[in-house]
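Lab notebook, design round three. We kept the backbone fixed and only want residue identities now. Task for the bench partner: fill in a sequence for the structure below.
Input structure tokens:
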């Protein structure tokens, strides 16, 4: 651009900095939407929360952490814009499901199956060492193919089979297999929301937040071309890219 326009790099930077790129949020659609909500981070306290529907970015906000308060602000914004929800697909952060159930008691809530699989993988690792961990990994491989009753039965049967193993304690009185116990606790908590899309076939609910994840990958790839951008310039670029849906 410097060679093409005969301007120095610094002059181009000043002109870019002078641009005011305001987020262009979409107006409310006529029909109720299947909302997808997720966040992506560049660092521990540097991220973007995005709400999407129908392949469009309806709302986004730069955040330091993905909190219930941030999500509450997001859905309040959608309400002021006149959006109506028939479902929401979430990544399962603590408190988010309860927030939507309180604000929209009549909508269907879907926990992202991919995120649930990732949660279990973090607890059991990619290569579980115990028989219980290996069996749980095998069950998770069936998540997208099972009906809720079948999956619930598989988890319950496995938990009962290894009840004594999971109850083992060390000399300090602590549970030996805390990671596995946490994995089962996560599943038992989230099972009621993992199969909402199957229980409401007529709503065409997404069972994952992959729409958001695909959007993240698209504009992050563009950002990589401009490595080293200062944060205010990077954020301006993100605003532009997300406004393009």
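Proposed sequence:
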């Amino acid at each position: 651009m410097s060679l093409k326009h005969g301007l120095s790099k610094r002059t181009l930077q000043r002109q870019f900095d002078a641009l005011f790129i305001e987020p262009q949020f979409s107006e409310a659609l006529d029909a109720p939407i299947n909302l997808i909500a997720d966040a992506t981070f560049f660092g521990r306290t540097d991220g973007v929360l995005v709400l999407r529907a129908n392949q469009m970015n309806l709302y986004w906000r730069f955040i330091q952490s993905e909190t219930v308060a941030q999500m509450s602000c997001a859905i309040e914004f959608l309400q002021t814009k006149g959006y109506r929800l028939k479902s929401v697909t979430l990544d399962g952060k603590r408190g988010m499901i309860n927030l939507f159930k309180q604000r929209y008691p009549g909508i269907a809530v879907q926990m992202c199956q991919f995120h649930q699989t990732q949660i279990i993988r973090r607890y059991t690792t990619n290569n579980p060492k115990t028989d219980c961990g290996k069996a749980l990994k095998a069950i998770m491989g069936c998540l997208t193919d099972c009906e809720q009753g079948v999956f619930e039965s598989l988890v319950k049967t496995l938990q009962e089979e290894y009840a004594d193993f999971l109850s083992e304690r060390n000399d300090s009185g602590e549970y030996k297999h805390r990671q596995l116990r946490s994995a089962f606790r996560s599943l038992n908590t989230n099972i009621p929301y993992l199969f909402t899309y199957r229980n409401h076939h007529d709503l065409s609910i997404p069972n994952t937040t992959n729409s958001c994840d695909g959007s993240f990958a698209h504009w992050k790839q563009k950002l990589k071309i401009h490595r080293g951008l200062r944060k205010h310039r990077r954020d301006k670029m993100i605003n532009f890219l997300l406004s393009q849906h």
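Keep this in mind before ordering anything: The chain has a mean pLDDT of 90.
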